[in-house]
């Protein structure tokens, strides 16, 4: 059981931006360098987070990206529901490709739905702000060494 | 977020065998035909379920497989923990490949662990027997048409 890389990177980008001061800008290059993850992937992630209204892009020389909402307004459960395109735990969860002969009568599906709901209900309790209680420590890790 | 095909098929094989009468034998060919899933995949799944002690193989002419334990003794949470080789929701869950710079200080990890525990705790409440309350309906779907 995994979350997609897309969810993983989305969370990391939001944590990165939330660790900076409110108006401070970051670049995709800088985030890519700090996390050592592909700039191409990050560009897509930032684009999607922008479409969700979570990131603002300031264009031009000296431009960059920053959070468009407060960390306490970014709910993790809500985010993960958007970044995970695929909660098809087993075949009968797929609206398009469900060929399991048992599907109409199977009670297992209900148990798996219940488990997934419990998973997301935990994430619903958290916002990005909850992961900033040790913000100084995060900032030291992310920004103390020159790039 | 998905479970592996291996987990999906394991659950389906156990449901299939549990829907038969206690001592009745099934063949991998028959299960493959009923579910329309690859016999090769099923052979591996059955082998692993055998190693876990959940399936018994009767060799020779007229042989086949059947449950080695009662459906009420097959806990779904326990099974899924064994069949999912990979609960690495995000990179920092990997013991081997964890390169996320934040890993040592990141509180998000705790929230994801908590969510995963909630997921598995729901599955821990169920055994295969819980999905047999409509056993006659399942049997009608699985066995009523000749192969």
Structure characterization notes:
Two copies of one chain form a homodimer. Chain A is mainly α and 147 residues long. The first copy, chain A, has helices at 5-19, 28-35, 39-51, 76-83, 108-124, 135-143, and strands at 55-58, 64-67. Chain A folds into two domains: 1-73 and 128-147, Winged helix-like DNA-binding domain superfamily/Winged helix DNA-binding domain (Arc Repressor Mutant, subunit A, Orthogonal Bundle), CATH 1.10.10.10; 75-126, no CATH class. Helix content of chain A is 48%, strand content 5%. The first copy, chain A, has a two-stranded antiparallel ribbon with strand order 1-2. In chain A, a hairpin with a 5-residue loop joins β1 (55-58) and β2 (64-67). In chain A, α2 crosses α3 and α4 crosses α5 (108-124). Chain A is elongated, with a radius of gyration of 18 Å. At the A-B interface, α1, α5 and α6 of A face α1, α5 and α6 of B.
